C-alpha cells in the first residue's frame, strides 16, 4: 500500500510540475501586448509632420514643382486660428554657384498662405513662411503649398537645391518637436506614386 501511495504522489508531483512549465511561456507571451499598449498611449494628441512629394520626372537643376504637405500623425484633429500654425520653408543650395538665387514661385492650397521672406546671399537660402488656416484631420496628409522651380542654369553653372521645413508656430498641447524641425527633403521626399526620391530639385 505504501508503494502505491508513493507512486500516486510522485505522479501528481510530475503533473503539477508540467503545468507550471507550460504556464510560464503563456505569462511571457503576454508581455508584448503590454508593450504595444504603451506604444499606443505614447502617440501624441497633436502632432504635424512636414513631407514632400514630387514627380518622378523632375530632374535636379531643371524646372518643376515640389509639393509640401502637413501630415497629422497625432490622434486628434489639429486646428489653430490663423496665424497660429506656421512652417518655415528654407530652400538651400545643394550644388552649383554659392550666393546665386533661383527663380522659385510659391503656391498655396487648402486655406494656407505662403509668404516670401527673400534670399540671403551669405547662406544661399531663400525663405518662405507657410501659415495654415484650415484644420488637418487625424491621419490626413494635407497639401499646404508648392514651390515651382525655374531652370537652374546660370552663367556660373547649374544650381540644384534641397529644402528644409521647420514648424515655428503650433497650438497649445502640441509638445512634439522630434519630427518637425529642419525636415530635409533629401530624407523625406516621395514621388507621386509613393516611391522614395532623392529630394534634390
UniProtKB/TrEMBL annotation:
Residues 1-28 form the signal peptide. It comes from the Bacteria. Residues 174-194 have a biased composition (Polar residues). Keywords: Signal. Residues 173-201 are annotated as: Disordered. This is Uncharacterized protein.
Amino acid at each position: 500500500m505504501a508503494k502505491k501511495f508513493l507512486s500516486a504522489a510522485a505522479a501528481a508531483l510530475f503533473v503539477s510540475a508540467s503545468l507550471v512549465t507550460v504556464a510560464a511561456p503563456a505569462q511571457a507571451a503576454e508581455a508584448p501586448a503590454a508593450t504595444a499598449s504603451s506604444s499606443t498611449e505614447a502617440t501624441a494628441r497633436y502632432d504635424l509632420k512636414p513631407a514632400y512629394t514630387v514627380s518622378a520626372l523632375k530632374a535636379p537643376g531643371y524646372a518643376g514643382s515640389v509639393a509640401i504637405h502637413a501630415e497629422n500623425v497625432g490622434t486628434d484633429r489639429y486646428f489653430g486660428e490663423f496665424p497660429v500654425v506656421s512652417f518655415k520653408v528654407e530652400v538651400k543650395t545643394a550644388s552649383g554657384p554659392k550666393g546665386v538665387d533661383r527663380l522659385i514661385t510659391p503656391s498655396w492650397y487648402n486655406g494656407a498662405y505662403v509668404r516670401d521672406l527673400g534670399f540671403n546671399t551669405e547662406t544661399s537660402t531663400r525663405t518662405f513662411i507657410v501659415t495654415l488656416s484650415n484644420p488637418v484631420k487625424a491621419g490626413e496628409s494635407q497639401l499646404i503649398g508648392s514651390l515651382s522651380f525655374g531652370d537652374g542654369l546660370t552663367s556660373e553653372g547649374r544650381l540644384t537645391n534641397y529644402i528644409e521645413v521647420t514648424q515655428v508656430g503650433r497650438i497649445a498641447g502640441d509638445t512634439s518637436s522630434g519630427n518637425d524641425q529642419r525636415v530635409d527633403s533629401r530624407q523625406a521626399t516621395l514621388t507621386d506614386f509613393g516611391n522614395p526620391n532623392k529630394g534634390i530639385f
